[in-house]
């Protein structure tokens, strides 16, 4: 077995059975997707899809209970698990229901932010690669979206998850979010989208007066990170990247700046020049007066894959699924620790499997004895104890806290329901 | 289905009381008897009107003066209510309102049948309603809201003061003074999606604060929701109507008339060889497809949006499934995808486009409208319409590169500025094909291709087979088909009891 720091994709088939047998947090996972049983068949009608060896993709899996889910996953040992919508019928029977009646009803509102979408504005890496320099972009994205989803849209139960490679996902789990129509999802996604246009567009952010409070608050976030980020990426350092920035400023300002930059080479001072020009512009003719803000947003504002958020039936990689290429677990991110979150410190499947092999401490032995006295839950207990011995523990613990949070809401729902029943 | 032989209700005619107002929410279906020829005229005229709504929406800014004037004019010509005026309720007004009412319900029958039809119908009806509501005076608006029980919660003055700054910076054209004199309504954001989408409203904790000037949004939302529910209900009761052999052909023709040609059928399969594609892309592709073609050739890859837009276009111009597979595969394997991965990850969706995989067989090539309006390109994408989605500066460079004359470029950019993207594209067509004025109105990339081929072959009819039997795209599109249907059923004169169609049996 390779050492903890290295993950070898070829070892995945050997590690997965162990992971699913002893480490995957099935009970939390089920607790989440069962949503307190408030709605009938909510878990049973949920679609899961598995990617197996050799990219074999099986859709429309569904399970009647936690036990069945566990059994199937342990049997199939999927390389990757995706979660889909809650359907009108059991997804694994979708072929047997009358055509036209099988459709997606609900799903968490989800967001997918992928570093590859920032390729035109990061200089450190490209495509699937990431490093700590560009990870700042993800931090900014989470800060901005999390604030807006809570304050503007009033959602409370947001689960942020590291995708395992080069991005993050957000699962908005509030009941109201799960019930949103396709039109509403796309409206939310568009509200949150500022960077627009494809390869044929140079200027991707255009602001007009008045600046909407949402944009103001997003700018506040970007401002906190921008100077450091611009410095690390040297966006005002090299000629090529300077040209890219200058392409975003108004024609007449561009000419002046081009001249000024010939004598001023330090990136920080160059940014100061831009700022000075921008505030002059605000006093003057006001046309394109927000170019400085536009630059900051074009470089740092979150880039959403709107199509992922729009569809109710769109699948998204599940939390605690493994990334087959990196071996990293898709772990929930605790926003209280966001600025310290390091994607490279996220445990790989090989690391946690190895930790499992480490000899136990005395303290844990005594726990073992206690367990024997209560044999009923022995297996379940053993699994809990297992993950607690690995670096996965703190992520599962955070997931537990998150679930406690939503559980409060469904307790309320259940009470309401039982009250109603009493009336009849 | 019942005809006038059997009367279930005694009707007083004409319905003088019934139509006291120009603008309707269409809550009550018509209950009177109507003769089949009137049934047809009403339906056909409404398709015409909605078609106009659609066309105007593509060529003008909605609610601009030109848009309003032209729409009002069309309504007038077609005998629909055209200038709301509740003080005057002469017989003509009443007739127009009756026609508005009945024709709306007839089209519900024709357009409830598929998802696409419903979407089109709802969109046009909503636009029509928006125009009419906007045209009402302040008093009339309030009266309309009142009459239809549309009540919304206004926030208190205290709350208004507390939120003043946010309200000003979220709504266009509001100042501290205007705020004082306006009511703000607080509704769940789900009820004002258009305002949320465009960030035209202040949003807090899941609620939007809508100034009275924008109340139309919530009203429209109600209108849309109700209509969409009603269509679903109508669809369920449709089998009864469909069993009527007199109405069925008419309804089907009405619904076919809405988008013009869809280029989904394959006629010239195999007449084009893969070797020809590069040269065709230079000569006969519209810019959107040329751009995609170039992108595949350069990057040996296209993202999903591009594969769909270009793949379906290729199918439309006559590539066979085998050719398409070969084309995509040969490019993709030159990029990052190996043959095995291609077969697993991409071949399926290409077969899907040709209806060879999965249940759906109706993948039709995208129309300009679809390309322009839906799924705008984002990072890494090459799809979309260059006239709509390229920076004007880049578009200009591209046109220069394609050797369009400076004056031509100017004309094109002028059209783009006015948001007449399809007209801009047509201008490009005329300039590059050296014709004074083209005799078609462009609404589909595949149409562009066919017209181009026709011009290049010297107007000879070599490509005739590519044409469809019915060409429906011009303004009169809707009516042609519907008139045909009307003729077909001319001998079936008789009376239709609307009540029996719209009420559940
Ligand atoms: S107008 Fe239509 S055909 Fe022309 S480029 Fe745009 S989408 Fe393509
Ligand atoms: Zn990097």
UniProtKB/TrEMBL annotation, chain A:
Catalytic activity, reaction form: ssDNA + n NTP = ssDNA/pppN(pN)n-1 hybrid + (n-1) diphosphate
Swiss-Prot/TrEMBL keywords: DNA replication, DNA-directed RNA polymerase, Metal-binding, Nucleotidyltransferase, Primosome, Transcription, Transferase, Zinc
Top EC category: transferase
One GO term of the biological process aspect: DNA replication, synthesis of primer
GO cellular component, one term: alpha DNA polymerase:primase complex
Cofactor: Mg(2+); Mn(2+)
A molecular-function term among this protein's GO annotations: metal ion binding
Top-level taxon of the source organism: Eukaryota
Recorded family membership: Belongs to the eukaryotic-type primase small subunit family.
NCBIfam families reported for this sequence: primase_sml
Protein name: DNA primase
Annotated gene: prim1
From TrEMBL, chain B:
An annotated Gene Ontology molecular function: metal ion binding
Superkingdom in the source lineage: Eukaryota
Chain positions recorded as [4Fe-4S] cluster binding sites: 288, 368, 385, 425
GO cellular component, one term: alpha DNA polymerase:primase complex
Amino acid composition bias (Polar residues), ranges on this chain: 470-479
This protein's UniProt keywords: 4Fe-4S, DNA replication, DNA-binding, Iron, Iron-sulfur, Metal-binding, Primosome
Family: Belongs to the eukaryotic-type primase large subunit family.
UniProt-recorded name of the protein: DNA primase large subunit
Gene: prim2
């Amino acid at each position: 077995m390779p050492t903890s720091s290295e993950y070898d994709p070829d070892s995945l088939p050997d590690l997965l059975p162990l992971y699913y047998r002893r480490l995957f947090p099935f009970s939390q996972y089920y607790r989440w997707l069962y949503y307190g049983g408030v709605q009938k068949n909510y878990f049973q009608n949920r679609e899961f899809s598995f990617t197996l060896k050799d990219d074999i993709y099986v859709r429309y899996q569904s399970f009647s209970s936690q036990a069945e889910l566990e059994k199937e996953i342990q049997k199939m040992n999927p390389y990757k698990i995706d979660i889909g919508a809650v359907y009108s019928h059991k997804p694994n029977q979708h072929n047997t229901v009358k055509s036209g009646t099988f459709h997606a009803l609900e799903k968490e509102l989800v967001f997918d932010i992928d570093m590859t979408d920032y390729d035109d504005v990061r200089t450190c890496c490209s495509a699937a690669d990431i490093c700590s320099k560009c990870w700042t972009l993800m931090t900014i994205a989470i800060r901005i979206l999390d604030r807006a989803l809570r304050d503007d849209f009033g959602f409370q139960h947001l689960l942020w998850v590291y995708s395992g490679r080069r991005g993050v996902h957000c699962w908005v789990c509030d009941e109201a979010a799960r019930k949103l129509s396709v039109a509403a999802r796309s409206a939310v996604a568009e509200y949150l989208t500022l960077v627009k246009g494809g390869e044929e567009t140079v200027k991707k952010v255009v602001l007009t007066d008045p600046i909407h409070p949402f944009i103001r608050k997003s700018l506040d976030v970007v401002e906190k990170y921008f100077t450091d980020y611009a410095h690390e990426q040297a966006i005002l350092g090299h000629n090529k990247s300077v040209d890219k920035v200058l392409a975003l400023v108004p024609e007449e300002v561009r000419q002046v700046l081009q001249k000024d930059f010939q004598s001023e080479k330090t990136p920080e001072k160059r940014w100061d020049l831009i700022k000075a020009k921008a505030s002059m512009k605000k006093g003057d003719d006001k046309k394109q007066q927000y170019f400085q803000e536009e630059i900051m947003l074009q470089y740092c504002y979150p880039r959403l894959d709107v199509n992922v958020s729009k569809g109710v039936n769109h699948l998204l990689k599940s939390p605690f699924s493994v990334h087959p290429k990196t071996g990293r677990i898709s772990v929930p991110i605790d926003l209280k620790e966001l600025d310290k979150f390091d994607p490279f410190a996220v445990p790989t499947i090989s690391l946690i499997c190895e930790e499992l092999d480490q000899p136990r401490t005395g303290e844990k032995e005594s726990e073992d004895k206690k367990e024997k006295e209560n044999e009923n839950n022995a297996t379940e207990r053993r699994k809990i104890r297992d993950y607690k011995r690995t670096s996965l523990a703190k992520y599962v613990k955070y997931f537990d806290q998150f679930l406690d949070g939503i559980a409060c809401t469904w307790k309320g729902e259940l009470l309401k329901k039982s009250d109603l029943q009493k009336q009849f | 289905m019942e005809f006038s032989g059997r009367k279930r209700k005694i009707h007083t005619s004409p319905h003088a009381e019934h139509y006291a107002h120009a603008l309707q929410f269409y809550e009550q279906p018509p209950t009177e008897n109507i003769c089949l020829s009137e049934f047809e005229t009403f339906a056909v005229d409404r398709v015409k009107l909605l078609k106009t709504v659609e066309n105007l929406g593509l060529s003008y800014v909605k609610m601009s003066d030109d848009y309003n004037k032209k729409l009002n004019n069309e309504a007038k010509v077609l005998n629909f209510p055209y200038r709301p005026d509740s003080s005057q309720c002469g017989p003509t007004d009443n007739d127009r309102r009756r026609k508005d009412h009945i024709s709306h319900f007839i089209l519900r029958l024709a357009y409830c049948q598929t998802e696409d039809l419903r979407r089109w119908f709802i969109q046009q009806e909503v636009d029509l309603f928006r125009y009419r509501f906007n045209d009402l005076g302040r008093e009339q608006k309030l009266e309309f809201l009142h009459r239809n029980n549309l009540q919304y919660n206004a926030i208190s003055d205290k709350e208004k003061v507390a939120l003043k700054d946010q309200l000003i910076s979220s709504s266009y054209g509001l100042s501290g003074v205007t705020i004082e004199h306006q009511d703000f309504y607080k509704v769940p954001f789900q009820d004002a999606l258009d305002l949320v989408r465009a960030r035209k409203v202040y949003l807090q904790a899941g609620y939007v604060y809508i100034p009275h000037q924008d109340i139309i949004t919530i009203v429209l939302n109600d209108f849309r929701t109700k209509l969409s529910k009603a269509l679903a209900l109508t669809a369920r009761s449709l089998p009864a109507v469909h069993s009527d052999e007199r109405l069925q052909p008419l309804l089907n023709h009405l619904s076919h008339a809405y988008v013009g040609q869809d280029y989904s059928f394959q006629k010239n399969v195999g007449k084009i060889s893969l070797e020809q594609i590069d040269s065709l892309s230079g000569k006969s592709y519209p810019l959107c497809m040329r751009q995609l073609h170039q992108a595949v050739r350069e990057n040996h890859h296209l993202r999903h949006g591009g594969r769909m837009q270009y793949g379906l276009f290729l199918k439309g111009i006559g590539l066979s499934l085998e050719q398409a597979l070969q084309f995509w595969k040969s490019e993709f394997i030159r990029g990052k995808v190996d043959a095995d991965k291609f077969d697993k990850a991409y071949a399926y969706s290409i077969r899907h486009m040709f209806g060879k995989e999965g249940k759906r067989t109706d993948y039709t090539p995208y129309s300009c409208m679809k390309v322009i309006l839906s799924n705008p390109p984002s990072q890494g994408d090459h799809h979309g319409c260059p006239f709509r989605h390229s920076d004007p500066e880049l578009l200009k460079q591209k046109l220069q590169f394609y050797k369009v004359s400076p004056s031509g470029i100017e004309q094109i950019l002028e059209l783009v500025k006015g948001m007449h993207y399809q007209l801009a594209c047509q201008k490009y067509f005329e300039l590059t094909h050296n014709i004074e004025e083209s005799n078609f109105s462009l609404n589909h990339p595949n149409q562009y291709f066919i017209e181009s081929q026709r011009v290049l072959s010297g107007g000879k009819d070599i490509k005739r087979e590519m044409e469809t039997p019915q060409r429906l795209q011009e303004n009169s599109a809707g009516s042609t088909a519907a008139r045909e249907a009307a003729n077909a059923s001319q001998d079936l004169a008789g009376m239709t009891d609307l009540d029996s169609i719209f009420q559940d049996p």
